[in-house]
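Justification of resources, computational component.

The compute hours requested in this renewal are based largely on the per-chain cost of generating structure records like the one below. Each record pairs the submitted sequence with a full C-alpha cell output. That output is archived, and it is also reused by downstream analysis tasks.
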Amino acid sequence: MKKSTILLITTLSILLFSLFLLIWHPTLLSQFENKINDMMFLARDQVKADKNIIIIDIDEKSLKELGQWPWSRNIISVILKNLTKDGAGVIGLDILFAEPDNSSPKKILSKLGMETKNIEDYDKILAQTIKNTPTIAGYVFSLKNDGIKPKDTPNANAIIIEKNRPKNSPIIKAYRAILNLPIIQKSVYSNGYFNTIPDDDGVVRSIPMLISYHGNLYPSLSLEMARNAIQEKIITVNYENSIVKSISIGNLNIPTDMYGRMIINYTGEGRSYRYISAVDIYNNNIDKSIIKNKFILIGTSAVGLLDLRSTPFDSAYPGVEVHANAIDNIINQNYVSIPPWADSANIASLILLSMIVFILLLIPNVFISIILFALLDFAIIYTHYYLIFSKGIILNTLFPLMSVNLLYFIGTTLNFFFENRQKNLIKSKFAKKVSPDIVEELLKNSTMAPLEEERVVTIFFSDIRGFTNISENIGSAKELIRLLNDYMTPMVDIIIKHKGTVDKFIGDAIMAYWNAPLDIALHADMALETAIEQIFELEKLNAQLTKQNRPNIHIGIGINTGKSVVGEMGSLGRSDYTCIGDSVNLASRTEELCKTYGAKILLTEFTKELLSNKNYILRELDTVRVKGKDKPVIIYECIGFDGLAWVRFDDDNVIIYQKAIMLYKHADFKASLILFKKLNTQDAQKLYQLYIERCKHFIKYPPENFDGIFNFKTK
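The structure output for this chain reads:
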C-alpha cells in the first residue's frame, strides 16, 4: 500500500475519532480546554477596569485598627452610613451576617440577666442602616444536601420572566438558603447570593447569574446590583432548544451557557479595581467624590478570612473582586461567551485542519513540513486568541490542536517507518555513546540530547538498614540473593513507573534520578512519591516475608535536587549514562542521616522548594553541615500523605514540635527540652530522643555563638 494511501486512511481515522469525541463527549477534555483559555487570558494580560466599581476592603490594615473579624455590627453600620453620606450609587455586601452579634451590649447584658431596656442592639442598628441605605445584602446557597433542613427563603425583589421555558430547566438548583439574621433579612430591600462555583480544577471561570430554589429563581449579587443600578424591575431568562441562551435586564443582554452561567472576562490579576481600606471609610477619611454614584462592593482580601479564589490569573484572588468583574462585564457589555453556532464552527475547523495536515505530511522535505506545521499550530492559537479578545467568541481550541498534532505525530511516525534508513543512521550515531534504552527513548521523543550536559536533577538513594546482620543471619548466599531480588524488583518497578532512571545498584543500595536524559515535569514530586510508595510497598512485602519466616527489610531514603553533570561516562569500551556532582554526594549523605534521626525518608530544602503537591506531610528536622560540605542545608522528613502517615504527627504535635525546634534554634535549650520530653512522652520517637540528648548536652556545656547548625564529623 502506498504511503499517501496509508496517510489518508490515518487522517480520516483520526478525524472521525476527534469528531466522535467533540460531538458525543464534548466535556471529556474540558479541563484541558479551560487551561488553554486560562493561558490565553494570561497572554492577554491586564485590561482597563471600570473606575466606577470600588471595593471596600476588610484588609489587614482594617483588622489591625478595628479589631479581629467579625466586627461588631455597629462598625459595619457606620461604614454603610458613611458610604451613603458620600453618595454611593449601590452597595453590595459580600458578607453574611448569619449569627447574632455576641459583642452587642444588649446581648451581653441579656446573658448576665440584667436590664436591657434602651440598651443598644447592634443587630437592630445594622438592620435599620441597611433599610435606610442603597445596600444589596448578600447570602449564600447550599447546593448540596448538607444535613440541615431547608427553612428560609431569600427576599425576591425582582420580577423574573422565563421565555420558552422547558419542562425541566437546566438552571442550577439549590438545596437550601443560608441567609442573614431574620432581623436583618426583614429589613433588606434587595439581596443577591454571592456563590462562586469553581470548575473541577478549582478555578472560578464563571458565575451562575440565577439559581433555582423551591421553584423560584433568584439573582446573583452582581446581577442584582446591576439591575438596581439601571432601575429595572424585570429580569428575562431566554431559553432556546431547552437550554438557557441569555439573560436580559432592560437593554443589557448577558450571554450565558446552558446553565445560566456567565463566563467572566477577567480584567487581570487581583486588585485591578480600586480598593479602599474599610477603616478609612469608617474614619470618614476619604474624598467623597471617589464614592459618589459608584458601585460599591464590601468584602475582604485578608488571607486569614479565607475569601480567596483561584482564577485564570491568580491562585489567591479576592472573592469580592470576582463579583466586581461580573458587574464590569454586565454594565459595559464586555463579554466572552460560547455562541450557539460554536459546535458547527468547531466541526468545520476540524475537517479543514485535518486536510491541511494531510497535505503537509506529503511534503518530502521534513524541515519545511515542520516549519509549516508549526505555523499552522500558531495560526490556530492566534485565531482563537483573536476571537476571544477581539470578538468575545470562545471556540474549542483543544480539539483542533489535539487532532492536528496527533495526526501530524502519527503521520510523521509513519513517514519514519517508510524511511527506516534515517532511523538507522540515528541509531548508528548513538549506539556507541549511550545505552540502547536511552537511544530508543531519544528516538521515540525525537530528541537528540547532548552526551554531556549540566542540568538540574533529583537524585534518590535508598539503603537497607542492618543489611550486614541480615547477611550473617540468613546463612545462605542463595537465599540472600533471593531476598534481595524479591526486594529490588518492586522497588525498581515503582521508580520506573514514576519516570525515574535507575542508575545503579550498590550492594543493597539503589541510586536513581529524575529529569535526565529527558525533561520530566515535577521531577521532585516524582521522586518523593516514589519514596512514599516504596515505604508502603515494603510494608506489604514484609508481611509476606513474615509469613515465610524470612527476615524483614527496612530502608532509609535520601533525596536531593541540584545541578549535576549527566552523560555517558566510563572507559572507552565500557561506559554508562550516569550523573555525578556535589548534588549526588549530598543525596547520599542525606540517606545516611536517616539512621541518625530514625527516619524512613529525608529530603533536602532544595527538593522541598520544587514540590508542587500540597498533600505531603513534611516536618523540618534540622539544619546540618554534612561531612565534606561547608554550606549548611535544611533537611526535612517525609512521613507520608495527609491521612496516610506512618508516624503520629497530628495538629497538636505539629504546634508543639515547631515551637520546640524554634526554641532550640534560639538556644533556649531548657524550654526546648521540656517540649521535646512532652512529645516523647506522647509518642516515643528517635527524633525526639535525639533532641532531648542534644538539649541536655548544651545545657550542661553551653555552646558559644550557637547558630542552630549541627556539624556531622562522619558519614
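The first helix runs from residue 3 to 24. Residues 3-44+338-418 form one domain.
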